[in-house]
Amino acid sequence: MHSPDEVEAAPVGLEEPTRLNSSLEGENARLAETIKQKNNEIARLRDECCQVKEQLVAEKGIIGQLGLEKASLSCQLAAEREQTAPFTVERFKDCDEDMLFYTGLPSYNHFKKLLVYLNPGDDGCNVLRSERAESSEPRSSRGRKRKLRTENELFLVLVQLRLGLFEDDLAHRFCIAQSTVSRICTSWINYLYAKLGLLPLRASRRIVDATMPREFKEKYSSTRVILDATEIQCEVPSFLSLQSTTYSPYKSSNTFKGLIGVLPNGLVAFVSELFTGSSSDRECVIRSGFLDLKFDDEDAVMADKGFRIEDLLQKNGVKLNLPPFLKGGTFSPEEVKSTKEIAALRIHVERRIQRIKAFHIFDRPIPLTLAPLINQIWTVTAILSNFQSSLNQQSSGKPQQEP
User: Fold this and answer.
1) Beta-strand relationship, 253-262 and 268-271
2) How many whole angstroms separate alpha carbon 101 and alpha carbon 112?
3) Where is the secretion signal located (predicted)?
């Protein structure tokens, strides 16, 4: 038999599993509620994430649109600035006299034809490509947005050559930085030199004869080229050796010296590179490549007395026409007549040189900082002078009429 205590304790032992089950059920309920809350939170966060993604897509679209609008406005602003700038080719295109004054070209039509021939490409890409080819800088450091339209870059360079303006002056006129002016001038002068150098300056004997002025035909019809030398003053170099080689006894200053050959009709047919001012005419002829040009039988070259090159030309079967040298203290009547005749005909090359030096970049001594570009500048200005009116016209300053 059980004691009373044992009988009373029995229900207590039976209640323990019930309490445990109740506790577990409560815990499960709490966990289920927590899981439900977490799932709801996850669902909410997923919804928010989707909303954020949608917002990001929308914002990216807005940013892209704003970027396009900014680029468009920047282009409009640049165009408006250029149009409102007081110094662009558009301002002078309707006045031939202004175009001649500022560019050395007879008209805006000539300017446009030159631009078409040069073919600088869209936004000057061909000029930029040429600039890159000349540069040793890494490509990534040279991708610049151009500040001026292509035709105004060319206009700027022609204005610099024609008027000899300083870069700071050009920067103010064109509303750009001086460093931009320097870059534009350097790249365009090299590009002009490369493109204009492809033009065929030499003419066949048939063309020379067909365009020969009457005064040549009468006595000097065999003339193929009239040759002369000219000098351009440069700054005095700091090195004594360069001072000596660039010093010209003829000009009593430091100079560069170049040869110009013109056809009887006055057009430039030969442009040498520039040599130091101490070089003789004979030395310049030898070094310039003039003797390598192809001549026809019985061709003649007309030159001044300083060109002692008759023996050099004879090797090519070419005659040299020079004014007679003074012998016996006086000229004979025939020599006086010959001197006057040759001087009258040589005026063509002298006028051509005057036209080249009408590009006022040559007015001041050439800075030594321009030495890497001086040959290009010299050649470009010489060839550009061919675009002007004929030397046979008395009113040489007037624009040439279109054929």
Assistant:
1) antiparallel
2) 16
3) none
Please tell me the distance from the alpha carbon of residue 363 to that of residue 376, in angstroms, as a whole number: 17
H or E segment to which residue 262 belongs = strand 253-262
The domain locations on the chain are 18-84, 89-196, 205-357
How many CB atoms are located within 10 Å of the residue 330 CB? 8
Amino acid symbol at 3: S
Neighbours of 211 (CB within 10 A): 15
Model pLDDT for residues 2-53, shown as the tens digit of each residue: 555 554 544 555 566 677 777 777 788 888 888 888 888 898 898 889 988 9
pLDDT digits (tens, 9 = 90+) for 303-358: 998 899 999 999 999 999 988 766 666 767 776 777 788 888 899 999 999 999 99
Can you tell me the distance from the alpha carbon of 317 to that of 313, in angstroms, rounded to the nearest whole number? Answer: 6
Find where tokens 């175009």 sit: 99
Residue type, 204: S
Contact 300, 261 (CB under 8 A): no
**DSSP assignments along 346-400, one per residue:** HHHHHHHHHHHHTSGGGSSPBPGGGHHHHHHHHHHHHHHGGGS--TTSS-TTSPP
Give the 3-state secondary structure of residue 343. Answer: helix
Most distant CA pair in the chain, distance? 177
- At position 47, the amino acid (one-letter code) is D
Look up the pTM and report it.
Answer: 0.73
In 3D space, the residue among 219, 112, 102 whose CA is nearest the CA of residue 162 turns out to be 102
- Residue identified by tokens 């005909």 is 345
